[in-house]
Amino acid sequence: MNESAPNPESGIVEISLSDISAFFKRNWLILLLAGLLFGGIGYGISYLVPEEFEATAKILPEYGAGGGAGGLSDLASLAGISLGKTMSDALRPDLYPSILSSKPFLLKVLSTPFPLQNGKKVLLVTYLDEEAKPFTPQQLAQGDTLITMSKEQERAMKDLADRISAVADKMNGILSLRVEMPDPKLAAACATFSLSYLTEFVTEYRGGKKFEKVAFLRQQMAEAKNKYQRSEMALNAYRDRNRNTYSNVARVGEQRLQTEFMQAQTLYGQLTQQLEAARLQAMEDAPVIKVLEPPMVSNWRSSPKRRNYALGFAILGGLAAIIFLLVRQKK
User: Fold this and answer.
1) InterPro entries, alphabetically (predicted)?
2) Is pLDDT at 273 greater than 70 in this prediction?
3) How many C-beta atoms surround the C-beta of residue 98 within 10 A?
4) What is the largest CA-CA distance in the chain?
5) Which residues neighbour 191 within 8 Å (Cβ) at sequence distance 6 or greater?
6) pLDDT digits (tens, 9 = 90+) for 285-300
7) Between the CA atoms of 277, 279, 283 and 287, what dihedral angle is there, to the nearest 10 degrees?
8) pTM metric for this prediction
9) Do residues 325 and 55 touch, judged by C-beta distance below 8 A?
10) Where exactly are the structural domains of the chain?
11) Could you tell me if 228 and 268 are in contact, meaning their C-beta atoms sit under 8 angstroms apart?
């Protein structure tokens, strides 16, 4: 390459565009061959990289309370049942990615059997790290407490955390889930499991206490119904036995049974109304998570991108050739 004389004051060598153009004209064949050679090497190296398959899903969660049954409060008011006005306890959708990156979730995924393309089932903890051992029942029971695991199990958990990602779009509220695995069916199964876990988690968070209240009221109503039926049978049986009796003792006994019957009937009616109100409240507060795009078993690998490998190595080869030619010319 022709270089102009260095400036004695600054010590800077000035290179013109014509010098650069002349350099490439003289050495274009060498640069081309170097790029092709390195590109071929990169393309070959891509076959040594394990293949990965991607499964994606998109869901649209709710952003407010009462999304599950919008008009149930109006229906309840027509029936004479007041659901009351409660503060919204909805879980913000922008927190959903944190749920899918939490250690209890990863622990559950690692300990769940998933199918492969060949029909076999594997545990991810041993599939992602062959040196790791399956989690023990004691380790699985510590999901909400202090989590302890071996180095191999922790390594598998970190690998899984890098393979599952979720991003919430604040503009349209859509949550995008992405799972990448060495097996296409495994990736789709993990994505489906993640959606199920997220739905169960949000439902339990929103309606856990309400469903417990429904179960408690249902049990109390069953007991009140039995008591109501027993008191009714006792009153009717007493009346049949004392139909032609006009003594004051018989009247007092009938009044006592009548009072017990009325109390049991009132209690049964009140519990029935409370149970219906609790059920409607639980339904109205149930979260809505609509799956826009379910996971699909991919027929094409997501990585490695063989063209990218070839292009990257070709550029690297061209740069290496330029440096080599410049160094040789300096000598």
Assistant:
1) Bact_polysacc_biosynth/exp (IPR050445), LPS_length_determ_N (IPR003856)
2) yes
3) 11
4) 138
5) 55, 56, 57, 177, 178, 179, 295
6) 666 778 888 999 988 8
7) 110
8) 0.62
9) no
10) 17-48+307-330, 53-303
11) yes
Token duo for residue 69: 């049954």
Of 299 and 138, the structure prediction assigns the larger pLDDT to 299
Element (H, E) at 179: strand 175-181
Q: Token pair 């009325």 is at which residue?
A: 262
Q: Which two tokens stand for residue 225?
A: 């119904």
String of DSSP letters for 6-54: PPTTT-PPP--HHHHHHHHHHHHHHHHHHHHHHHHHHHHHGGGSPPBEE
Q: Which amino acid is at 154?
A: E
Q: CA-CA distance, 93 to 60, in Å (whole number)?
A: 9
- Tokens for 83? 């659901």
Segment 109-130 mean pLDDT: 91
Q: Assign 219 a pLDDT band (cuts: 50, 70, 90).
A: confident
Confidence category of residue 156, pLDDT binned at 50, 70, 90: very high
What is the reported pLDDT for 13? 56
| Amino acid at the residue 58 | K
Residue 162 in tokens: 């890098």
Cα(202)–Cα(313) distance, rounded to whole angstroms?
Answer: 47
Tokens 């109304």, residue located: 273
Q: Residue 121 and residue 95: Cα distance in Å, rounded? A: 31
